[in-house]
Specification:
By secondary structure, this protein is an alpha/beta fold. The chain has 13 helices and 16 strands. It is globular, with a radius of gyration of 21 Å. Bound molecules: 2-phosphoglycolic acid and zinc ion. Zinc ion binds next to loops.
């Protein structure tokens, strides 16, 4: 046992230049652990609350209140607790907050402490974070879902779908995956340039060209994959982020058209027919359960359907989805729920029910690499952490390259049901 002796938070910046919380936890023997909290833009409305100050400072986005909550009530509650008992620390904060969505203290405040305590514990034991979280069983280097063309609310362009991702699922190792994805990324840049498109990048490091629509973006991806020579090794994934396209009443705005649920499902089916798409995230809006049920029934056997806004890493929402037949995979974002323990619970419930997990960054990030270690620890098999540009995205890939080189492991999906 080792006690927490100090907890201190700071207001720092994320990759969009907005304030976020950084916390350092110190243990009684002087060991430290720290963590930065990320922040979303296409935030699900059922997510735990990210506490912002409001007012004019930082245009309302300051996090001084969250910082004060860490330095005040939270630190008082967790100082003296055993840093090796993560669940007790997380439960103490959940109880202290006392709300359903962490709106009293802020999920940003609570998460920063939760993750910093885990890091401090790993440092105290002198083992890497992924090993602390996953033990000897955490051995799978994840397949990256790399967002190379950005649209939706992540870019100021004409594309409705938020993320067009390349997925090097045919690579042999994680480092091989990074190599072929990087070559494809640079080929895509060249092709876009040749056609006179912008190659400036969006929030997640992907290009944000003004293309005519979904199919034009996919055609560019295919051309890049083929010209790089990897059409047998690289597939495609989409994050539609359909909550942002929902008009209400079962209707969506997509590619300049209004579509009903059946038209949306048919639209996805036609894309699956024409492109090597292996995963579609948020094909329907967060509260459009009818749409989710329809797409899961019609396409759930042929493609991975990832629930992000609908599940928000929340174990109760996921349990409902499993019961009702929504999606067949879940996106995992630590700050949607606000503690490490609740995140691990959601991952376990997913795996027990043969739902795949994709560990994810947020569009507002820092260079913190916690999710890289988490993805290996839980054998998620997939990570979504942006393009192959921007330091806050590549930091996660670099951490995984290091883990693979130093500790080995296997690359790809971990499917206990296939053993
Ligand atoms: P966000 O986007 O971080 O802006 O929510 C990521 C996603 O929708 O998966
Ligand atoms: Zn998403």
């Amino acid at each position: 046992m080792v006690r927490i002796s100090d907890v201190r938070a700071y207001e720092v910046l994320d990759s969009r230049g907005n304030p976020t919380v950084y916390t350092v936890v110190t243990l009684e023997d002087g060991t430290r652990g720290d963590a930065y909290v990320p922040s979303g833009a296409s935030t699900g409305k059922h997510e735990a609350l990210e506490l912002r100050d409001g007012g004019s400072r930082f245009l309302g986005k300051g996090v001084q209140k969250a910082v004060e909550n860490v330095n005040g009530v939270i630190s008082k509650a967790v100082i003296g607790m055993n840093a090796l008992d993560q669940r007790a620390v997380d439960e103490a904060m959940i109880n202290l907050d006392g709300t359903e969505n962490k709106s009293r203290l802020g999920a940003n405040a609570i998460l920063s402490v939760s993750l910093a305590v885990a890091r401090a514990a790993a440092n105290f034991l002198n083992i890497p974070l992924f090993r602390y979280l996953g033990g000897v069983n955490g051995i799978v280097l994840p397949i990256p879902l790399m967002n190379v063309i950005n649209g939706g609310v992540h870019a100021d362009n004409s594309l409705d779908i938020q993320e067009f991702m390349i997925v090097p699922d045919g690579a042999e190792t994680f480092s091989h995956a990074i190599q072929i994805a990087s070559e494809t990324f640079h080929t895509l840049k060249k092709l876009l340039k040749e056609k006179g498109h912008s190659v400036s990048v969006g929030d997640e490091g992907g290009f944000a060209p003004n293309l005519g629509g979904t199919r034009e973006a996919l055609d560019f991806l295919m051309k890049a994959i083929e010209e790089a020579g990897y059409d047998d090794l690289i597939s495609i994934a989409l994050d539609v982020a359909a909550s942002e396209l929902y008009l209400g009443d079962g209707k969506y705005r997509m590619d300049g058209r209004e579509m009903n649920r059946q038209e949306m499902v048919d639209f996805y089916r036609s894309l699956l027919d024409d492109y090597p798409i292996i995963s579609i995230e948020d094909p329907f809006a967060e509260d459009d359960y009818e749409g989710w049920e329809m797409v899961t029934a019609e396409l759930g056997q042929t493609v991975q359907l990832v629930g992000d806004d609908i599940f928000v890493t929340n174990i109760e929402r996921l349990a409902e989805g499993i019961r009702e037949g929504y999606a067949n995979a879940i996106l995992i974002k630590l700050n949607q729920v606000g503690t490490l323990s609740e995140t691990l619970d959601a991952i376990r419930l997913a795996h027990e029910n043969a739902y795949r997990t994709v560990i994810s960054h947020r569009s507002g990030e820092t260079c913190d690499t916690f999710i890289a270690d988490l993805s290996v620890a839980v054998n998620a098999g997939q990570i979504k952490t942006g393009s192959l540009a921007r330091g806050e995205r590549t930091s996660k890939y670099n951490r995984l390259l290091y883990i693979e080189a130093e500790y080995g492991g296997t690359y790809g999906y971990f499917d206990p049901f296939e053993v």
